[in-house]
TrEMBL record:
Coiled-coil intervals: 263-290
ABC transporter domain location: 4-213, 310-493
Signal sequence residues: none
GO molecular function: ATP binding; ATP hydrolysis activity
SUPFAM superfamilies for the chain: P-loop containing nucleoside triphosphate hydrolases (SSF52540)
The name this protein goes by in its record: ABC-F type ribosomal protection protein
InterPro entries in UniProt: AAA+_ATPase (IPR003593), ABC_transporter-like_ATP-bd (IPR003439), ABCF_ATPase (IPR051309), P-loop_NTPase (IPR027417)
Stored PROSITE patterns: ABC_TRANSPORTER_2
Pfam name, any one: ABC_tran
Keywords: ATP-binding, Coiled coil, Nucleotide-binding
UniProt keyword Coiled coil, yes or no: yes
Domain of life according to the entry: Bacteria
Length: 493
């Protein structure tokens, strides 16, 4: 066991005015299975790069371990997988590598195939196997579940649960709960390190946030009452002051000094009470800086005259002479259906969506869509996103102001709005696609792995949105918690 000590860490990207980290200090035990949680753009990947020594920073990071980063960049993906892994870890024994692959229920024959022919799951498993075999290595694992199907996630989660000495960046709540025993959280303003998994941290955070919000509301009500009391006291003191100049009462001349003193005393007491309460509110508001508020999102769901939107009858998809991706699929999407497609990568889920969109996908069987059906589609791919947000809004005929409002609710900072979209992080790019879909009037929504790179809090926002608006939807998503909460039906293909 050793300690990774972070002291007074400060880092700001070149040409940026806002620091990503400012005088941050904490420590990490190298035996921990550490989950790394935070909103998109808060600096998770940046921190991993700082640990790797890729950026200059002020402050200090001290450690006796060597940091290894996943995903490892594979330059020539046409090479044999074993060759790539031996380059990554030259001292490992082949039998050790086979053992690690077996732990993830992966056929060792993949070692003798071109890396480019491996599925996303096989690539992830092979790279993790080689990295964990490195002696004295502390792994920095950055979103390993992206593009992984359900079975692959299960195996990787089981594998990581047996290991120790890593930081895991993931937005999959179920995956985190199965893998980690500590969490490092980038809150809105502070950094928190604590024992437990995601669920235990989130339960405590939710309770704390609710308590502080309730206390803050009570304080604000007290302030309103005190301000009214101060106003009344001021009116009373003004009236009393007025008696200093007036006629005699019962032949007696008023004691102006005494009256003025009493009026001032009353006013001072009211002002002191008000000031104390206002100080208490300011103190409490400083504690509210980490409270996560999930702004409500809206979906532009159009009514369609037909209850039935799409019908697939005995549909099969095959490319060339290869084996069919899917066969004999019967599917009906009706108003209010939120259907999740489940299955291994490569089984035809994306092709099926493109077929419904009207693309030229080779198929058998019958595809029927309702007349004048408007569809909003989110693809897995973000590489086509170019230019500014205003240009994107113009290209797709959506309201620019509405687009910015939705992005802000999804956690994008205003400073990002002026940047080129190609300079965004992958999570921010995915939020652009999500915001675009939320702005589009549609009868049917087709979302293909919409949550890749999307932070946990935004996932919760989207869950609440879909449960509130109940749109007709066909989606692919391997986040089990999201799928089970949102879907009205799950179809295995």
């Amino acid at each position: 066991m050793s300690i990774i000590q972070v002291s007074n860490l400060t880092f700001t990207y070149e040409n940026s005015f806002d620091p990503v980290f400012e005088n941050v200090s904490f420590q990490i035990d190298t035996d921990w299975k550490l989950g790394f949680i935070g909103r998109n753009g808060k600096g998770k990947t940046t921190f991993l790069n700082l640990l790797m020594g890729r950026y200059e920073y002020s402050g200090s990071i001290t450690s006796s371990v060597e940091f290894e980063y996943f995903p490892f960049p594979v330059r020539d993906r046409s090479r044999m997988t074993l060759e790539i892994l031996e380059e990554l870890n030259p001292v490992m024994e082949q039998w050790e590598l086979i053992r690690e692959l077996n732990l993830m229920d992966t056929d060792p024959e993949i070692l003798y195939r071109s890396f480019s022919t491996l599925s996303f799951g096989e690539q992830t498993k092979s790279l993790l196997s080689a990295l964990f075999l490195k002696e004295h290595a502390f792994l920095l694992i950055d979103e390993p579940t992206n593009h992984l199907d359900g079975p692959a996630r299960e195996k990787v989660a089981e594998y990581l649960s047996r290991k120790k000495g890593f930081i895991l960046v993931s937005h999959d709540r179920d995956f985190l709960d199965r893998c980690v025993d500590h969490v490092l959280v980038l809150n809105r303003q502070t950094i928190e390190v604590r024992k437990g998994n995601f669920s235990s941290w989130y339960t405590d955070k939710t309770a704390k946030d609710h308590m502080e919000l309730r206390q803050n509301e009570h304080l604000k009500k007290d302030i309103r009452k005190l301000k009214e009391a101060a106003r009344q006291a001021a009116c009373w003191s003004d009236k009393v002051e007025g008696t200093k100049i007036g006629s005699r009462a019962a032949g007696l001349k008023p004691d102006r000094g005494y009256i003025g003193h009493q009026a001032a005393k009353m006013m001072k007491r009211a002002k002191n009470l008000e000031s104390r309460k206002e100080s208490a509110v300011r103190e409490k508001e400083s504690l509210l800086k980490d409270v996560e508020t999930l702004d409500s999102l809206k979906l532009n769901v159009l009514d369609h005259h037909s209850r039935r939107m799409v019908t697939l009858t005995d549909v099969g998809i095959r490319y060339g002479e290869s084996s069919p991706l899917l066969e004999h699929l019967n599917l009906e999407i009706c108003r209010g259906d939120r259907i999740a497609l489940s299955g291994k990568n490569g089984c035809g889920k994306t092709s099926l969506m493109k077929l419904i969109l009207g693309e030229d996908i080779p198929h058998t069987g019958e595809v029927w869509t309702a007349g004048d059906l408007r569809i909003s589609y989110i693809s897995q791919d973000t590489s086509f996103l170019k230019g500014t947000l205003s240009e994107l809004a113009l290209r797709y005929g959506i309201d620019h102001s509405l687009l910015l409002t939705v992005l802000k609710k999804l956690g994008l900072e205003r400073v990002q709005f002026e940047k080129e979209i190609e300079d965004y992080s992958e999570g921010q790019k995915k939020k652009v696609l999500l915001a675009k879909s939320l702005c589009e009037p549609a009868h049917l929504f087709l979302w293909d792995e919409p949550l890749n790179f999307i932070d946990i809090f935004s996932r919760m926002q989207l869950e609440d949105l879909l449960l509130a608006y109940k749109p007709a939807m066909l989606f692919v998503e391997h986040d089990r918690a999201f799928r089970e909460k949102v879907a009205t039906k799950i179809i295995d293909i």
